[in-house]
Amino acid sequence: MSAQLQPSGHAAMNYRHAYHAGNFADVMKHALLALVLGHLKQKPTPFRVIDTHAGIGLYDLEGEKAQKTGEWRDGIGRLGSPLPGDAEALLAPYRAAIESARATHGEAAYPGSPLIALHALRREDRAIFVEKHPRDLPRLKEAIGRDRRAKALELDGWTALNAMIPPPERRGLVLIDPPFERPDEFAHLAGALARAWAKWPTGIYALWYPIKDPRDADAFARRIAADGVRKVLRLEVNIDADGAPDRLNGTGLIVVNPPWRLAEEAAILLPALAQRLARGPRAAWRADWVAGD
To answer: What is the number of structural domains in the chain?
Structure first.
């Protein structure tokens, strides 16, 4: 029986990405995404990336929406100097994807998850980017260009998740990054993962979530464990552990079937990111297992 997941009232946030591109949550999510993709490339067999809530793919940090919030300044804007020690080496794939986007689109460009995925793909790999908003789809298609390795589809992300797994390659990553527009988004996300995992238990799943009230994230992790999903790694950065529960204080990524060594790498990278991106005097991080084998 699944554990009940009751929203605290702080879960809904309408996370429209153009306003938040390059912020601390993007830095953490995209740095880990780049690491996972790097691990997938270590085997010669092809893989597929399925991005269920792809957005527009490319963002302008000098654009009206990004400038309105200015959140990128306390995200990617704080990475002008290298991170200490081994953390900088782990950040290298993410930095390379950003430099690739800027080389093509200008210094204010920030790549969303589709362009980070495309930067990592080899000739034989494939990607499907799903976006349900009809006004965003043309911009997503423009961002990926004529790259034959990728397709952009106008479709509900939750429908796509059910329809597109397992992929023909039988190897790959599903990124689930919903906008958290609804108060029951954590419960919806946990349920969707359980159904997807039952259908394709060997795939890698990466589920992004915001942290306002940490109790929501704790309940989310308990629900996933209660649903029987195995090999679940919980990764989080909290930039203000004392922050009010009505604002975004942290960010998390649940990774199912994480690549070997990702937990060790996260334990090096995340504390460095937490320190660099801290908003308050008490920043925090975590890299632990929700469920093992």
So the answer is: 1
